[in-house]
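User: Watch each token:
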Amino acid sequence: MARSFNSGSGEFTLSPAEVPALVQRVFGDLRFHTDGELAALAFAPDGTLWSLEEPGLLRQWDAHSGQQRHWMFLSDLETLWQFRSDARVLASASDDLSLWDVASGQTLTVLPQPSWVTAVALGTNPRLLAIGHDDGRVRIWDTAGEQVLHELAGHEGPLSALVFSPEGRRLASAGEDRVIHLWDVQTGQRLGTLQGHTDRIQGLAWDPKGTRLVSAGWDTTARVWDTTTFQPIILLNGHADQVTALAFSPDGSLLACADSAHAVHLWDPANWKTVHVLQEHQDDIRCLAFSPDGRLLVSGGADRMIHVWDPRQGRLLSGRGEPVLQRTSLALTPDGRRLISSCAGAGLRIWDTATGQVVVEPEDVGPMQALAVSPDGRWLAGGGPDKLVHLWDAATGKLRASLEGQSGEVTGLAFAPDSRTLASGSGSDGLVWLWNISSGQPTLIIPEAADNCLIESLLFQPGSQVLAVGGIDWLATGGSDGAVCLWDVNQRCQVATLDGGITCLAMHPSGQWLAAASLVESICVWDLEKQELVIELTGHDETVTCVAYSPDGRWLASGSDDRTVLLWNAATGES
């Protein structure tokens, strides 16, 4: 059984301070890193922070260190997520509504709905739930009895926001009709109507005393209302774009308003003057939450970053810098002194692995799906959606050639051991092209190189001219089958076929073993001389997306969509 570096279980998790400098520079600030856009944030009474990101991934954080304590995947079917204020229960909704126990990730109940859900509110009373719909109706539910207590009609068009008052006796609702209604929760009677916004109302928030309600509008304003007289108190118009999220501090001494201009405005409700404007996000901010003691404010949104602020000082405590970047490909030079990274929006970068500094930024040609470094370290090859194979001088980063021929996106690249030949493959046409590096001309085109499968990975066997081509039969089997085909490029013939669909390949430094990762959560290790399966390594819970042998050949590392890295003894298959 392999040992797991699993951030979900906390086993072998590095604290942010222990993460190597190179990793932080290449991938960005790993504190509060999320893979998807933030949909909801909430603090538990003990100060633990919970986040929900699309599509349905729940994470638990240490709010002070930024270290992830736990994560779990809930569901990718829902489009709307909302925490209860104590972060113990989470609601998700689309055409029905589910309630989740946050600590365990277990479903508490599922409530079928008559129409699409567009807004949800969970009150301090754990039995009460308000649900807004695209038909303009608001339904107040008794979750214990799973029955509707009241159906509230008053909006013309979909609901956009709901919130219970602090004492739980009133409900505020807002819709795309730009109107706010206040309701008596016990009787279902409308108490009053608030009007003034000129565009969609995106959010609502009560002050802790329940005497004032704030509304966030796409008209770039936040409006403060007296909930007794139903009259406006003040118009907060300091925002440059749509106001998207609101939160009061627990003592009511601060109001946080976020907007699509990537800023959080902090207002003093005593005089409604701006205290601070917090600017670090790089995209829309969608959610805000104060810690129970009011000393921390967290913000999150479309840039996949959670920022932690000292709201009194207006100071960023964690999350500075670029979001963690989604790298499409990584490659190391043979001597291990340089790391090449590719990312959409950041281009290619060559890093010094000792200092963690960028030493070369090759000429940018767009996103890269595949990277390869020649064995002599002189050449860097990249390919992607533009169907071209690009060659750079690895020392200077100068683009030397762009080789044209592939009819589809380049998904695989591999240099021959002599560094004179480059193989490129496409995930759409099934062709492998062999290129002469000096002339830039093709020397061989192999049709159906992966036995009618879409090409996912290419590798040359060390010390030989045998090329391994791995592919998946997406059309016939939906990815459950495929093949690894071995080609002698000198003799121009196929020498073997190894069964099984693969996502990636890794060659043992000796050339004896080939590791092939599959969509069925396993890794097959083949003896290339005998063309026999040596061992099948199982331990991942989802698709294995990457494999690599250590330079000394003692270890095999594998990464998976289950967000774990497993280390295997290459000789025995054990940890």
